[in-house]
Write a structure and sequence with these properties.
The chain has helices at residues 18-25, 31-42, 44-49, 52-59, 63-72, 78-88, 106-126, 130-141, 153-165, 178-187, 204-215, 229-233, 253-302; strands at 145-149, 172-175, 192-197, 219-224, 236-239. By secondary structure, the protein is an alpha/beta fold. The chain folds into three domains: 18-90, Arc Repressor Mutant, subunit A; 93-126; 128-272, Glucose-6-phosphate isomerase like protein, domain 1 (Rossmann fold). A five-stranded parallel β-sheet has the order 2-1-3-4-5, sandwiched between helices. Helix 9 links the parallel strand 1 (145-149) and strand 2. Helix 2 (31-42) crosses helix 5 and helix 7 (106-126) crosses helix 13 (253-302).
Length: 309
């Protein structure tokens, strides 16, 4: 991990709801504590209504293990854990965990996909860290150059971000080829900002380029899940806690969340730049409109007149 006094570091508190926090830290828990985690994730309502003795019995562990589990997920004690778990179960829009199946009608397919996307965005919104977003917007607003790195589906998100940010008057480019972004990262310097996008945050090539960018003096904003290797390497980490099944489908939910996070950053930078940017955007729109009109006029003049027979 890089030493940076200004870096916004992840903690278990940033992982979103209590259930999301438990999922995020489960792999790092002791085996006995993992039993508690598995029980709570499978039967959260039962855990809420149980005493410490009953929960220990149902999970097949000792009462001290329950206390250690609570501390491992950064709760002050068992009651604090139960209160936060209750909040996790009452976040407003439920998370639709049921996936689509071959027997689903088109109506059911539409409902499931839309409901999961809506629930995901609401959950990410409810657990954003405003301080981290403010720091990220500050970095981007002061950047002399912005580079977006991502692979696969994240590469498409990076390209979309480049399309948004180059209109703001800052040189911006998106790279999805690891060889290219590693070479570019090594040549950056202070004043440049890299935005690294990855749901898993564990791509060795992406992490290598992030390390090179930090060593070159560039700031790095990571858009990833809590506790990933990418989050540990960034100047600022923006978290999108998404239960993505990347083994079955290409990433959809994380992609949607990442796109909205980048929308927030772009709008934030635009607002900081004030009226001058508005005039620049108006000129850009006017040029695009004129270009479309010219193309349409060219198509009409190029088409031969239909002969009347």
């Amino acid at each position: 991990m890089h030493d940076d006094a200004e870096a916004v570091r992840p903690s278990a508190q940033a992982a979103g709801t209590m259930l999301e926090r438990i999922r995020a830290v489960r792999a790092s828990l002791r085996k006995s504590e993992q039993k508690v985690a598995d029980f709570v994730l499978a039967r959260p309502n039962t855990a809420v209504s149980s005493s410490i003795a009953v929960l220990a019995q149902k999970a097949g562990v000792s009462e001290p293990t329950i206390i250690r589990f609570c501390r491992a997920i950064e709760c002050t004690g068992f009651q604090d854990f139960k209160l936060k778990l209750v909040g996790s179960l009452a976040t407003g829009v439920p998370y639709v965990s049921s996936g689509v199946g071959p027997g689903d009608s088109v109506a059911e397919l539409c409902s499931k996909v839309f409901d999961r996307a809506i629930a995901t965005l609401v959950r990410v919104r409810n657990h954003i860290n405003p301080e981290a977003f403010e720091r990220a917007i500050e970095l981007l607003d002061g950047a002399g150059r912005i580079e977006f790195y991502g692979h696969g589906a994240s590469g498409i998100v990076a390209a979309d971000a480049q399309h948004k940010f180059f209109r703001l008057g800052v040189p911006a480019v998106a790279y999805s080829d690891p060889h290219v972004h590693s070479m570019s990262a090594a040549t950056l310097g202070p004043g440049a900002v890299v935005v690294a996008i990855s749901h898993t945050g564990s791509s060795a090539d992406l992490l290598h380029s992030v390390d090179l960018a930090r060593e070159s003096g560039a700031g790095v904003i990571g858009i990833t899940a809590w506790g990933t290797p990418l989050a540990q390497r960034c100047t600022v980490a923006l978290f999108a806690e998404v239960a993505e099944d990347t083994d079955v489908y290409t990433p959809m939910l994380s992609r949607s969340a990442h796109l909205v996070i980048l929308d927030v950053l772009a709008v934030g930078v635009a607002l900081r730049r004030g009226p001058d940017l508005r005039g620049q955007l108006e000129r850009s729109k006017r040029n695009l409109r004129e270009l479309r009109e010219q193309r349409l006029a060219g198509e009409f003049t190029a088409k031969p007149a239909h002969k009347v027979r």
